[in-house]
Amino acid sequence: MSTQRRPRATVLPTRFNKTSRLLERQIQNIEAELENNVKKLKKNPSEFFKKILGFEPYKYQKELIELFEKNQFLAARWCRQSGKSWTISALLLNYALNHEDCYIAVVGPSWRQTKLNIKRIGYFLRKLPNKEEIQTQRTKINFKNGSTIEAFPNNPDTIRGPTLNVVWWDETNFTANDVELYDSILFTLGTTDGKLICTSTPWNTDSLFWKMCNHKAFSDFARHHVSWEQAQEPNGPLRKGILEKIKHQFGEDQMRWRREMEAEWTEDEDTWLPMSLIAGCIGTKKTCGEDLQPWDTTKGYSGELFAGLDLAQTRDYCVLAVSERINDKLFLRHLKVFQQPTKYATVIGYLKALQDRWEGFQKIRVDNTREGPSVISDMEEAGINNAEGVIFNTSRKSEMASLLKERMMSQRFFYPFLTWEKPYRGDICNEMNIERYELRQDGIICFNHPFGSHDDVWWAIALCVYATIEMKKLELEAFAFG
Known about the structure:
482 residues; Rossmann fold; Nucleotidyltransferase, domain 5; 2 domains; six-stranded mixed β-sheet; P-loop_NTPase
């Protein structure tokens, strides 16, 4: 029995073309209306943020906008999680759209940090009409009106070259060679009478940012301070639950809470590593010859590598630090904070993969105070070479801490300006500032950290530096025979 196929439904070309033209006109009308809105609203940053970029600025953010418009120099001292980078990114985008042929620079402690801010600005670009006319790269954004926003490394020689209209100096208080960088910025802004906005949470008081916010010699700086109290909901983005998590993370480290959440300076008091020393060891082109970036763990590298592994499972964190020695200087290349709870099999597997990919380690120093020799045996069975256990007694901790401090004071140990969000929100500077010390009557130095905080990153880095020298034979023999 034969079957007949039904004829397929067809769309008449005239009807299709008519519908297509109608949709195209609607799209053009929408884009024209949006572009018209941008033109009208870009003169009012607050309305531009609200109706184009999609967020309504809080009162303290509006205050910053007004200060930026009315002043040449501005120092903004804001607490963490208050929307500092978010606000400045939107503000610079608005400025670039309003001013033809302007050159805006973004600088900070490291090039990695400034490129992240370019990425934030790029997020807002997606909300603009005709965004295809804006050329976006990893370090630079070029606008149709001839304006440019570009990320620069922390190098006074580089920033001195171009003629700039606006400079955003992020995390000013954490920037090494801050005075020299500031001189270069003033030099490049001199011919344009341009603007400088410096933003940071407080760190050390013997710094340029402290002077910008406090010293009478910098009275030409407008100053803006935002603490957690001003930034909590409904007047800011800080929710009660987030504040509780931050308090829990900081534990009894009141100095860190005061710096990061109250945006106030604190004294070093009994911390082992002074804040100015920590900031001075951030690796930049000027401090160590290169703008240090963490190594990509998916890529292969080779060099004279040393590792420190601080082991933990539940209460604390397991942390791995890897450094490279070049001409008697150490450069931190990798830092890994493992998620809790930690399985040692996962850590050993991770370390083995890095060993194979990076052509081995000269020495791996492991804190095996709790686990004993078995963890070293497990590493050897997994094919990990040159692992050596360290028992954390008072004298050994003092030796490691003293070596770390000596290497930093002699400018022989540098690290990138690292920040991370998982497994907890942290950064390299605060981690290096966590360890406290006490000198006993018998002359022995004891180390501790505030209750509720973690010093695992600190000791992993100390172990990593300690791996570059020979451990005393006496302890090696005691360790071998239990």
